[in-house]
Amino acid sequence: DMEDFKGDDRFGCRTFAVTFGLQKSRVLFYVVGSLSFVGLLFAQYYFYMLDLVYHLWFFVVIELLFIVIFAVFYKANDKKDYSRVSLLIKLSMLLGIISMVFFWF
Predict the structure, then answer these.
(1) 2 and 15 in contact (C-beta within 8 Å)?
(2) The pTM is what?
């Protein structure tokens, strides 16, 4: 929503960013992102306890991607930066979907 804030506002869309503002949207991003990151850490610990090495390292890659997302988002201040964050988030979702292959085998 932050990426298209100006266009959404101009056309009267009621997104979170338009309704509550960019600052509260940033806070929401950090809260949801942090909760997701903690969930990844718990999953990683679970796989560590089960001695599932491939699962463990796949989650390490996703966690590193989360750290990159947080770093890019922290410095973001225009549409181009938010587009980059959006692309990284989509990449992390794709990796999450691909990780389901590991659960099959």
Answers:
(1) no
(2) 0.83
What are 65's two structure tokens? 């991607």
Find tokens 């980059």 and name the residue: 84
Instruction: Please tell me the distance from the alpha carbon of residue 26 to that of residue 67, in angstroms, as a whole number.
Output: 16
Residue 91 near residue 62 (C-beta atoms within 8 A): no
Long-range contacts of 35-41 (CB under 8 A, 24+ apart): 36/66, 37/63, 37/66, 40/66
pLDDT tens digits, residue range 20-60? Answer: 999 999 999 999 999 999 998 998 898 889 888 877 888 88
* Residue listed under structure tokens 């806070």: 27
- Residue 105 is classified by DSSP as -
- What is the distance between the alpha carbons of residues 66 and 80, in angstroms, rounded to a whole number? 19
